[in-house]
Amino acid sequence: MDFSFLRGYNIYFLTGAVNTVILAIFTVFFGVIIGTFIALLKISRNRVLRFISTAYIEFIRGTPLMVQLFIIYYGIPLPVPDVTILGMNMSRFIPGVMALSINSGAYVAEIIRAGIQAIDKGQMEAARSLGLTHSMAMRYIILPQAIRNILPALGNEFVVVIKESSIVSIVGIADLMFNTNVVRGALYKPMEPLLVAALIYFILTFTLSKLLGKAERRMRSDD
C-alpha cells in the first residue's frame, strides 16, 4: 500500500468531502419539507390524499435510488443553467439533489407521521377546546412536540444520506466518490484511493453520529 499520492491529490478528497456534505445538507432540507407535506397528507381524513401519500411512499421506498436518479436526470428535462459552482455543475447537481430529496422525503414522511401520531390525542382535543382550528393546533401544538421527538431519527437520516449520496457520482456530480474515481483513473491505483474515501466517509458519519448523540442527551436532560 502506497499513500504518497495524497500529497498531490488531497485537494480532490477535500473538495469531494465538502461537496458531499453540501449535497447532504440540501437533500435533508428539502427531504424534510417533502416529508412533512407527505406526512400531513397521510394522516388527513381525506381518503384521496391518504392514497396519494401512501402511493408516493410505497413507490419511492420500493424502487432503487439509482433508478429514481436516472429517471429525473435523463427522463425529466429541467431548465437548469450549465454553470459550475464550487466545482459542481448545476445541471447535474440540481437533478441529483432532487432525486435524493424525493427519495429521502418518503422515509422522512414515515418518521414525521410516527412522531405526530405518538403525541397524545388529548393535546389536539385540548387545543380545539381552546378555540384553535385543526391546522393551528397542528402547527403550534402538535408539530413542535413531534419535531422534538423525531430529531434523533432525522439526524440518522442525515447520516444515511451522506452515505447514499455517493450514488450521484454516476451522473458526474463531483462528490467524494466521483473525485475518488478521478484519482483512481489518474494513478491506476484501484485500492488506495477507495480506502481513503472510506475513511473520510467514516469520519463524517462517525462525527455526525457523536454530535447527534450529544444533542439527544442534552434534550433529554432538559426534560
Structure write-up:
Helices cover about 80% and strands about 0% of the residues. By secondary structure, it is mainly α. The N and C termini lie far apart (about 50 Å).
Concise description?
By secondary structure, the protein is mainly alpha-helical. The protein is 78% helix and 2% strand.
- The arrangement of helices and strands along the chain is HHHEEHHHHH
- Tally of strands: 2
Low-confidence segments, given as residue ranges, are none
Counting helices, strands and paired strands, the structural category is mainly alpha
The biggest sheet, with number of strands, parallel, antiparallel or mixed sense and barrel status, is: 2 strands, antiparallel
Q: Tell me what portion of residues adopts beta-strand conformation.
A: under 5%
Average pLDDT works out at: 87
User: CATH top level of the domain at 21-175?
Assistant: Mainly Alpha
Q: What oligomeric state best describes the polypeptide chains here?
A: single chain
Looking at the overall shape, the CATH architecture of the domain at 21-175 is Orthogonal Bundle
Q: Identify the overall geometry.
A: globular
CATH fold node name of the domain at 21-175: MetI-like fold
In which order are the strands of the major sheet placed? 1-2
Helix tally equals 8
Distance between the termini: 51 Å
CATH superfamily of the domain at 21-175: MetI-like
Radius of gyration: 21 Å
Helical content, roughly?
Answer: over 70%
